[in-house]
Amino acid sequence: MFQEARGLPGDPRFTAVGRGVTAALLAELEPLFAYALPDGAPHRPTDAELRSLPQAFTYAVLSDGSRVVGRTAPARGESSAPVRFHTHAVHIPVGVPLPGDRLPVEAWRSPHWATVTPAGGASLSDPLGALPPGPAPVREGLDDFAVSRGPWLAAVLSDLRRASEEAAPAGGPVVLVERRSADVARWLGLAAVALPRESAERLTFTTYTRRPGSSALRVVGVAPEDAAGAREAGLRVHVCADRPPVEATGDVWARTAARVWRSRAPELFQEARGLPGDPFAAGPLAVVALCAGVGLGSEERAAAAGWAAERPYALDAKRVGQLVEALTSPGIDDRTGSEFDAVGRLFGALDGRCPASVTAPLAAMLVTEAVRGGNGSLELPRRDAFVGPEGEAIAGVLGPEILTELESGAGGSRPVARTVQLLRVARLLGMNTRDLLPDVATRLAPALLRATEAETERPEGPGPSGASKPPVAPAFAPALLELLDEQFDVRTALLGALDRIAPEDPGAVARFLERVALPFTGTQALPHLRMCAEAPGAMTTLGRDRTALWHRILRAAGLSPFAEPLVLRTAAGLVWEDRAPTVEEARLLLEAATSDAHRAAGTWSRLADAALGAPADAEEAEALAHALLRAFPQEIQGRERAALQLLALCRDLRTGAPEPGWADRVRTLRDRAAPLEPPVQERAFTALAGRLLAPDRPGAELYAFVRSDDADLIAAYDRAARTEPTRTRLRTQPAYAADCFTVWTAHPHVGPAWTTTAAALLEEVLRPAVRSMSAELVAEVEETVGRTGSSGRANAFRDWNRSRTLGRLGRRIVGRVRRG
Fold it and tell me: Which stretches make up the GTPase-associated protein 1 N-terminal domain (predicted)?
């Protein structure tokens, strides 16, 4: 233990040093007790001004593990130095506790700090060992100080807690800005009471310094004029002498500790340390605070309920009763969802362990919140939690509200979790909802599908299940399954409602069942739900084999399509969803049941889509169209009927003898079917052109075609005439070449489309074919033209054929003359 007195800052002197204090130790102590007057301090202060100058009360841990506690205070000097600085410090060796096992901060009010060096080696007073017994003298006034610093309490206590951790936090000391250094000591006194002893002992500090950025201590006090410099140094600064902070700290323990101090109940800190758990968990402190009547916020109450739920054995009956009373107080109006969830867990932990009279207020609070607060995630009490008068009372209050909301037609837009919660509470309170269930289930079933689609991302890949991502259960799933497990009548009604709507959107039902495993036990048939439940696994097993998938899903229904035609719609929706079947798959569908079954199921529209969406080279589409027109003459109407009739006409044009007028009929059906699918139009135009280019085509049909001057049809005819089969026939069959010449030179003034196309075909298709013929074949073409037409047409062919030849000969002669 030593005492040091200093004169001017530039001329310090150690005037008395205890034994065992080495020169190296003194060198380490020097910067700890450096003192500088605040800005604006008077040169020759009065006694009052001298007393108002800040004192530096310091506690530090030295490099060898020993500790030092000291006070540096201004004192009256000589004329040459009106103010001197005197430090009285106590060195505490390693492993030696403070006298009376005190904390260092408790010595800041000791009356035995010396202000002068004793003369003649007189014995020194002990400022640590002479402290008054008990905590009261040391803590005197801290309650009032805590109340006066209420706005800063939580934030400062949070930072002091972090500063007391075993590993010193990076970033420098916590800076407390106060006008009086004694108030910094009071802050440290608040922390010493609130923190566990080992944490408080790690909290090194000084109540006053002018150089906070260079301090190795964990907490420092500065005057207001030095706050800006501390901020510029990047330190954590609390200006407790200025306007209150705006943002609250997120440290729930610190907020709880602040409320304890403001309630003038510091004894609760020691009481909380007697409970199990982390020393800085908010739960134990919040529990003892609530039991002592201290008002806390929602997060702090949630921490208390959550801690007690995990350790119901840690509280005696008296404290349990006090905690329940505090949590269920009718004066609280700021409860949050997390608080209700914690209270629900607490009720679950206490239910059966405590008398019903103790837990009944918790149960009533939870049920009331479930009905009026709309909290769908609450853990509800068991049904027997309200047996007796408590149940009758709460049912009398909440029952009418529940029935009114369940009867409301707004159920379709009501969140699923809300409806599920209302049904569970109704059963919990013993209410009769049997008459409401059909309508409630009818509204709830589609809401389940919409909520599932909204809450979960639809997986990629074919079919309703996909294969790339595991299904994610929606948030309402656990409560829904509990409801169905609790209430058989609700399960029956809801499964029936889902089965009824499944044919309308089986893919959505399948995705829902993949995420929520509904129980299919019981005697209900539920064919559509069983098919939807079978689909994901079947798709995983069978992959892209949609024919095998179709049969497997139909078998899962357990009913024949003849007995329940709607299974056809459900199966088709599951296998093909929003895609059309192929023509082969459509034939399978058509043959799977009678036309009456398809008519009742509405699956005939998928068959029509298959025919109309088939590629242009799928000839089976024509036979399918013919079959569909015969099977569903009343159902297929409008544009689709005209398009299917056009496909059926294509079959007659290719293989049979269509009714007369087919050239005009193609045009008429095309116009009725607009907008026509491109493959169907391509197939029809190709069939028409091929039939018109056939040697045996009726002249009336050809004339009707030419007279129409339909640009699209004539373009298709032009394309067909330029194909290789037509060119080969022209080169090898003189009669066919003669017929084409007659057709392509007839009707020269019908219209521009035909005139232009016919002239091009004569020059670009027929002339190369005739030029490649032998003289005998050309003569036969000429003879056939004359025989089937007239001598004038034969002359026309001769002139047409000669004109090109003479033209080439003339150009050769002109070229030779020019070269000569």
Answer: 13-120
